[in-house]
Amino acid sequence: MPPLNALKAFEAVARHGTLARAAEELLVTPTAVGRHVRNLEDVLQIALFERDGGALRLTVPGRRYAGTVARALGEIADATDALRDSPGRTRIAVRAYTTFLVRWLIPRLASFQARYPEIEVTLSSGHDPVDFNRERVDAAIRYGRGIWPGLVAVQLFEDELVAFGPLGSRARLEHGAPAALLGETLIIHQRRPRDWADWLAAADMTGSPARTIAFDDLALVWQAVTDGLGIGLTQRRYLAAEVKAGRLEEVSDVVLRRGTSYYLTYPADTAARPALRTFAQWMQEEAGATKA
């Protein structure tokens, strides 16, 4: 038998198409994932991927093998869940963006577990849309306009982008005057490169900022702002706890709204599952309570 870690790494790379995304899911480095894949190819004496620069494409044998490995790992996971589950308990797996988990869902999850102890929620993070036919995920958070064929989309809250900085930033920036931000270092989220341009347009501002720093993860944007490196943009709901604790603040009254929201999504053919309905209803209640 090939090493199990090598099989898991191969299946993740086959599904995501890149070492980096597979590494993010497996919580290891891309180098480690690449080493596992090469070890598996050495054991099998077969090329599973064609390598063209940094791109990876499954070979024909690799594509066949990936489907079989995915099914086998799924059966192992199913058997493990069945063995662990006690009578009367239900488990649902939820995928969400890292910052959504850290800033919104995880701080509230204890109240769900206390209210519904018979439902166990497991969490994973990721940016890409979930393939519910291949991945062991029951529900996922998605950002957009709520139209995804075959999926139930439960709206949680509208995307409201606000500029934020350490406590005292608003007073320093002429009490929230948007023009003052052009003299600041603006922290950019690389996955949403249009955010600052759209926010400045909503503030009727033209011109370029004095300096920018870019990060590929919103969690890093948060850390940079917290450490005083500059001013960032974030979903207003994520900021509430930091404002209440007196650590961060909105530095302007301008709020960017583009008609997009955060949704809990799951396949329409699983919508009758009581645990999913319960979780979706609780998520909506929590989103409504935050809005209120």
Automatic annotation (TrEMBL):
Residues 2-59 form the HTH lysR-type domain. Pfam families: HTH_1 (PF00126), LysR_substrate (PF03466). The keyword DNA-binding applies. One of its GO terms (molecular function) is sequence-specific DNA binding. Keywords: DNA-binding, Transcription, Transcription regulation. It comes from the Bacteria. The keyword DNA-binding applies. One of its GO terms (biological process) is DNA-templated transcription. Belongs to the LysR transcriptional regulatory family. This is LysR family transcriptional regulator. It comes from Roseomonas indoligenes. The lineage of its organism: Bacteria, Pseudomonadati, Pseudomonadota, Alphaproteobacteria, Acetobacterales.
